[in-house]
Amino acid sequence: MEETEKVLDLSSFQLHNLNSVELPTDLIELDLTANRLTELDPRIGQLSSLKKFSLRQNLIEDAAVKPLSQWEALSDLEELVLRDNKLMTIPDASIFKRLLIFDVSFNEISSLNGLSKVSTTLKELYVSKNEVTKMEEINHLVELQILELGSNRLRVMENLENFAKLQELWLGRNRIKQVNLCGLKCIKKISLQSNRLTSMLGFQECIALEELYLSHNGISKMEGLSTLVNLRVLDVSTNKLKSIEDIQSLTGLEDLWLNDNQIESLVDMAEVVSGSREKLTTIYLGNNPCAKSPNYFITLREIFPHIQQIDSEIVA
Question: What is the pTM assigned to this prediction?
Answer without folding.
Answer: 0.96
